[in-house]
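As a warm-up, study this chain.
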Amino acid sequence: MTRPRVVAFPVRGVLTACTVVLLVGPTLLVIIASVSIGRQIVFPPYGFTLHWYVHIVTDAPTWHALGNSFHIGLTSVALGLLVGVPAAFALPSFGIRSRLLIVLALSLGISTPIIVSAFAFFGIFAKMGILNHLTAVGVAIGIANLPFMLWPIMSIIEDQDPEFPAAAATLGADPVEQFLFIRLPLVTPGIVTGAIIVFVASITDFVLSEVLTTPSDQTLPVFIYSGLRTSISPGLGAASALFIGIAAIVFIAVLRLGGVERFLFRQ
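Now compare it with the structure written out below.
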């Protein structure tokens, strides 16, 4: 007597597909609806037109908001480079407990609820009189995203052979030459990866930008959200699609560098 053949149900595949649909579905709906002829976002879209994308190219408020986002993103990256890179190089010289405490302190921006951080920065900037400065907003977002600069660099440093500087010293390299020609080139992929991640996380930030910016210096996420209060037009969908495209291109560049895989999947 033969047993009936049992067909294995691909539970993992079904769950993965459902998760991908839930994550990607809303984005695809917005992109598809952005080519609608009508003045309201509807699905399925009514007709097909690229008018809204052409409108974005000539729309000054949209480009102003995008420029503000880039300003904040570059400020955050600069802060990450000035603080995260030296910290990553210095941490291995500390003991385990001291290193853990320093990493926890530098990671408070991401471990603290973002809305709490937003109002804390609001109070500090108001007392300092810099509440209406985009650079200050970039510093706040840079502090919140500092771990994304720190972690990839630390991951690469931990994977390095600690004997490299000593080997360079035996060949006559002084400490400055060891840093410039040995250590720095080895961690450059981590620095670039961290900078790109911080840049994308900064330009797509909403909570801190919503609390800290004013109507005259809105970032693109806040600008899109503000537009939803009046009318949900395909133009907002086109602006969202533009933003999604920029973020996707940057993340593809990160994946090409390979630093993300080394950081996420190191043994």
